[in-house]
Design goal:
By secondary structure, this protein is mainly alpha-helical. Helices cover 43% and strands 11% of the residues.
Length: 161
């Protein structure tokens, strides 16, 4: 992300763009390991740009942190994310911030929780407008799961501080 300035914004997105200016930038919108092309341990490309649009520059950082820190309980980390032991979330948050070039982690936890809220609102909005796959996601329980993850993040922020 940091080394890809001026990313192209998808113009036919059903999402409403933010006005230009200030802390806004072109963001991927679904930046996680599943959308990165890897050559060995080095990222060489980014896939799936259908959620790209101008957003606060911190959006993609916070979105990725939700998964790489991770903002998940230990049971989910062990069972679904295949961790061998529960992660040291604070250390991972610090490593990610340093690798990205941030000089502080201040505000990152709140940014992740904010992105979790924004994703819930965005999925609800798109489903209400009839967009797929969001209609299916809601039928499959996405809003409940995402709400539970957000509640976990708020209740367990001390693990990242």
């Amino acid at each position: 992300m940091r080394h890809l300035p001026g990313l192209a914004v998808v113009l036919d997105s059903p999402l409403k763009p933010h006005p230009p200016g200030g802390s806004m930038g072109d963001c991927h919108g679904d930046f996680g390991p599943w959308n990165i092309v890897w050559r060995g341990e080095r990222p060489v490309g980014i896939l799936d740009w259908d959620n790209a649009r101008p957003r606060p520059r911190l959006h993609d950082i916070a979105y990725a942190l939700e998964y790489v820190a991770p903002f998940r309980d230990d049971a989910e980390c062990l069972r679904w994310l295949r961790w061998l032991t529960p992660p040291n979330r604070r250390h991972r948050l610090e490593l990610f911030a340093a690798a990205y070039g941030l000089t502080s982690t201040t505000g990152l936890i709140d940014a992740v929780i904010g992105v979790q809220r924004d994703v819930i609102e965005q999925v609800r909005r798109l489903a209400d407008a009839g967009h797929r796959p969001q209609v299916r996601w809601i039928a499959d329980g996405f809003l409940d799961e995402a709400g539970q993850r957000r509640a976990w993040s708020r209740a367990n922020r001390h693990l990242f501080e």
